[in-house]
Specification:
Layout: H1 3-80, H2 87-170, H3 173-186, E1 191-195, E2 198-199, H4 208-216, E3 221-222, E4 229-232
Parallel strand pairs: 1-4
Antiparallel strand pairs: 1-2, 3-4
Helix pairs in contact: 1-2
């Protein structure tokens, strides 16, 4: 195999290794992101609960004001009943008093209903706060584990970068420039093997003349269909 082609095959494999680190890091970081998202959702739920609780408390204040108002009205009507002179006035006063009592009972029932809702909201909030505390402790452990794994990967990536730097320094600049041009669009399939007389980048069959040139390996040959750099993979014995 031509020296430059051999270098490009090696460089392509090194670039593939370097690019493989990003998905590895993303995979390792996924647990941390999931835990952070969970805490974020818990915070949203807690904020919504606080808003609901505040709204219920405001409703209770309004209902207590109504209760005070209706109670005062009933007392006032009770005082008026002593000054009633006719049956018609007595009946009118009785109707007004009954309505006020019904409104008072409804307001008291509403307070009971709101108290139950408030109790449920407060209990749910307590559960969420306990869950949040647990998740925050858990996330600290996840962070330590993730940082440790990423540190190891970064060291490995740096070793491969150093290997690439040494190799690139030894490659002809025109050859390197051509490789980078192909890699810009082909990514990690800039240099591909030929198997069963087909380019393993576009999987199209290549012509006999091109195939013979690839087998010889004396020069850099590109796929006539897609433009990727081709090489003949060594047969495994």
């Amino acid at each position: 195999m031509n020296k430059y082609l051999e270098q490009l095959v090696l460089l392509s494999k090194i670039d593939q290794e370097i690019d493989s680190f990003e998905p590895k890091i993303e995979s390792i970081s996924k647990n941390l992101k999931d835990a952070e998202n969970k805490i974020s959702k818990l915070n949203i739920q807690l904020n919504d609960l606080d808003s609901d609780i505040k709204d219920i408390e405001n409703q209770k204040i309004q209902n207590n004001a109504h209760i005070a108002e209706f109670s005062a009205k009933i007392k006032e009507l009770s005082k008026k009943s002593g000054a009633v002179k006719t049956e018609k006035e007595a009946n009118a006063l009785k109707i007004e008093e009954d309505i006020a009592k019904e409104q008072l009972d409804a307001a008291n029932d509403e307070i009971i209903r709101l108290d139950k809702i408030l109790e449920n909201k407060e209990n749910f909030k307590k559960e969420l706060l306990e869950e949040k505390t647990k998740e925050e402790k858990n996330i600290d452990e996840i962070k330590k584990n993730v940082n440790s794994q990423i540190e190891i990967l970064e060291k490995e990536r740096m070793d491969i970068y150093n290997k690439k730097t040494k190799l690139v320094a030894d490659i002809n600049q025109k050859v390197l420039s051509f490789y980078e041009k192909v890699r810009k669009w082909a990514k990690n399939t800039a240099v591909v093997a030929v198997k069963k007389q087909a380019c393993y980048g576009c999987f199209m069959k290549i012509y006999d003349k091109t195939y013979l040139a690839v087998i010889k390996g004396e020069e850099i040959v590109t796929c006539p269909h897609c433009g990727r750099i081709l090489y003949k993979e060594q047969d495994k014995s």
